[in-house]
Model the fold of this input.
Amino acid sequence: MSGRLDGVRVVVTGASSGIGEATARALATEGATVALLARRTDMLEEIAADIATTGGDARAYQVDVTDAAAVRDTVNSVAADLGAIDVLVNNAGVGSMSLAVDADLDEWHTMVDVNLHGVLHSSHAALPHLVEAAKGARGVADLITVSSASGRRVPKPTSNVYAATKHAVGAFCEALRQELGPQHVRVGLVEPGFVVTDMTSGRDFGELEALEASDVADTIVFMLTRPRRHGINEVLMRAIGQDS
Ligand SMILES: NC(=O)c1ccc[n+]([C@@H]2O[C@H](COP(=O)([O-])OP(=O)(O)OC[C@H]3O[C@@H](n4cnc5c(N)ncnc54)[C@H](OP(=O)(O)O)[C@@H]3O)[C@@H](O)[C@H]2O)c1
Done:
């Protein structure tokens, strides 16, 4: 498979379904070699095999992003297997919505562990590889994080902790952007509104035509295929008609 990302080595977390899977498929179609990270190995292997049937190159790596040591080991294994890491897509995430008075504290902790600590673990593990890769032939490396429209504005009371994790991720990425630009590591945030995935299954969108995972994947491909000088730092994207 050949395309605009030939020779680019990418890590996608949360690649076993939804936005991560669609992103991995889109990147492989553009010629990237993609490391698929998540907990459900069977799904990762199925996706990798399917990508291979279309001539793409994807490899499955089982990891729980809440486990810092496991993430470090996995990222280092990916770098050894692929020769380098040019791009990290932080995508793994979970969302549970409830009013604070009704909330299950364990669900709050899980959201913080996956959506915030997971991003910190993956970013920290990948950064040395990205800085190194930026010195190579491509001349740039990329760290893209899938946040949410809820990371820009709290849409409703039940978004409490989910929105808090996404706001935190936005602040972290802005600091990374300021630190890493001089080393030619671009840092970008993607902030989707409603997307049809497992996370939103059972949700009634009413008249609204929600985004597809491939819409987010297309945006990430666009960000990664800009000229080296052109960093896209933030993309807020909502289904047309979504009000919050
Ligand atoms: N759907 C939406 O409307 C929407 C809107 C805005 C932003 N987002 C964001 O988009 C991202 C992807 O979500 P999605 O909508 O595509 O949902 P999804 O289909 O449920 O995908 C979530 C992914 O995260 C992985 N994951 C969850 N916990 C993990 C853990 N502890 N370790 C490793 N991987 C883990 C899951 O894999 P395993 O279960 O196999 O580990 C899965 O691959 C999330 O960050 C989410 O907040 C979604």
